[in-house]
Specification:
Rossmann fold; single chain; alpha/beta; 28% strand; 6-stranded mixed beta sheet; 31% helix; 488 residues; 2 domains
């Protein structure tokens, strides 16, 4: 069994995509490979086939490796619910909410859970591609580290260190990180420069000096890649496909937005432009308004109220603009939200009143993968595979259900052109997206486009192959394979 760990000089250096690329390359080369990130902090998560929760980035890496997602690939997940507090997910199940200082004190107690998950992966796969978090040179976090060099020591993993040249100062990033790691410097077997635009030959003097000063070779320069792969945190929306798109979709950019990757398939459709909206003045006159998921429904509803966006959305809905709420956004659209157990804020809060339903928060978290039959137009008769991942139970008092997910139950609420559902991954279905696009075009009196045959899963597979091709060409893969597999 072998392993290799990808660490970075900072958050956003490209660890997740480099790890995904290595998973795909090694999988293409016939190895049984699995990803692993011991501790992840992200609001983008998914549900595994056995009903557990894990980070979205490791699910994408699992796909790159030809695997279904498994919570062992991300045994600790932190989902921020405020500036200083996160929900702690361990082995796919919620353990409760912890303030940052409290979590820092207790995180070493999670080592047995992390190591047990890693050993289970170790028993099944030839090689494990491990992703670090942030930077290993965050000297205030080195004591009790469980995700960077601390984990590398526990599992005896060689390390590749990635720096981001697009942000500038990449030589200082790499040299400074190595200099701050005297105890673990020998673990770093190679340096990688990521996101380079231009002729790599001009870097040669710097690469030679970097090797001279660190004693570590630069094993490749990865170009800035135009690949479209769901990332760990979708803090910025790609909008490079906006030109000439006729349908304007306003995605309300909640402060605690979660699972923003739900809407990537919409932005890839030839007729649909998805734009983030943070202020009431930005709403303008969209063809569809989407309220996404959130890690704190009550706080983000208060934010909507304070910014004037709630009033603006309700005014548009009254004028006939379609509105769709997913998960937390669905809860906001109802008449009332109650939190008797203090799961979020405690107390009660009046909802937006656009749907005849109300939500009561309980401490039980629903995690389920579902195959649902959609009921309202324009989706009627479509089948959608997705997942539910939410706190709270929502009861419908009027309107009609949005979907029938089996289990002899109804899901969601529909009233006119206002829709609410808990189904994440709804738009992964090309049929659902095409129905939505055609309906919105018809409402504007525009001719339907030729049916877009976009297949989200096939698109992701193609993007992973493009990523792997570029990284295979850029890096010394022979050295990486030897480093990962040689335990002599």
């Amino acid at each position: 069994m072998g392993n290799i760990m990808i660490q970075g000089t900072m958050s956003g250096a490209g660890k997740s995509l480099v790890a995904a690329a290595l998973c795909r390359i090694l999988h293409q080369d016939g190895l049984c490979v699995a990803p692993c990130k011991s501790q992840n902090m992200s609001l983008n998560s998914c549900v595994t086939p056995d009903g557990r929760e894990m980070g979205r980035a490791q699910a994408v890496q699992a796909q790159a490796a030809g695997l279904l997602p498994d919570a062992d690939m991300n045994p600790v997940l932190l989902k921020p619910s405020g500036d200083t507090q996160s929900q702690l997910i361990v082995n796919g199940k919620a353990w409760g909410h912890y303030r940052a200082a409290d979590y820092f004190r207790m995180k070493k107690s999670l080592i047995p859970e992390i190591m047990a998950a890693y050993r289970r992966l170790e028993e099944k796969y030839d090689v494990i591609v491990i992703e670090g978090a942030g930077s290993p040179a965050e000297i205030n976090l080195m004591e009790g580290d469980i995700v960077n060099m601390g984990l590398a020591r526990m599992v005896d993993a060689p390390v590749l260190l990635v720096g981001d040249i697009d942000r500038g100062g990449v030589f200082a990033q790499l040299y400074g990180t190595v200099a701050l790691l005297p105890r673990d410097r020998q673990r770093i077997k190679g340096l990688i420069i990521n996101k380079f635009r231009g002729d790599a030959a001009i870097l040669e003097p710097g690469l030679a000096m970097l090797k001279e000063k660190t004693g570590i070779p630069v094993i490749g320069v990865i170009p800035y890649l135009d690949v479209d792969i769901d990332e760990e945190d979708s803090l910025t929306q790609r909008r490079d496909r906006r030109a000439s798109k006729p349908i304007d979709i306003a995605l309300i950019r909640l402060p605690r937005i979660s699972n923003e990757t739900d809407f990537a398939p919409l932005s890839r459709h030839s007729a649909l432009d998805v734009r983030p909206v943070k202020h009431a003045r930005e709403l303008k006159d969209p063809d569809l308004i989407i309220l996404p998921g959130t890690k704190n429904t009550m706080k983000d509803l208060i934010w909507l109220r304070e910014t004037g966006l709630e009033e603006a959305v309700c005014r548009k809905a009254a004028g006939g603009t379609p509105v769709m709420g997913i998960c937390g956004g669905y809860q906001m659209l109802g008449e009332r939200i109650s939190d008797p157990e203090g799961v979020e804020n405690g107390g009660e809060l009046k909802g937006m009143g656009l749907l005849g339903c109300e939500t009561v928060f309980t401490r039980e978290k629903r995690l389920a993968r579902v195959n649902a039959l959609l009921l309202p137009e324009p989706f009627a008769g479509c089948s959608a595979q997705g997942y539910e991942i939410h706190m709270g139970q929502t009861t419908r008092h009027r309107g009609t259900p949005f979907a029938l997910p089996g289990e002899n139950r109804e899901e969601g609420t529909t009233e006119g052109t206002v829709y609410g559902t808990y189904l994440h991954g709804l738009f992964d279905s090309g049929t659902v997206v095409n129905r939505l696009a055609g309906w919105l075009l018809e409402r504007k009196g525009m001719p339907a486009l030729q049916e877009d045959t976009f297949d989200h899963e096939a698109w992701q597979e193609r993007q992973l192959d493009l990523l792997a091709d570029a990284v295979r060409q850029a890096l010394d893969m022979e050295m990486i394979r030897k480093t990962a597999m040689d335990r002599s």
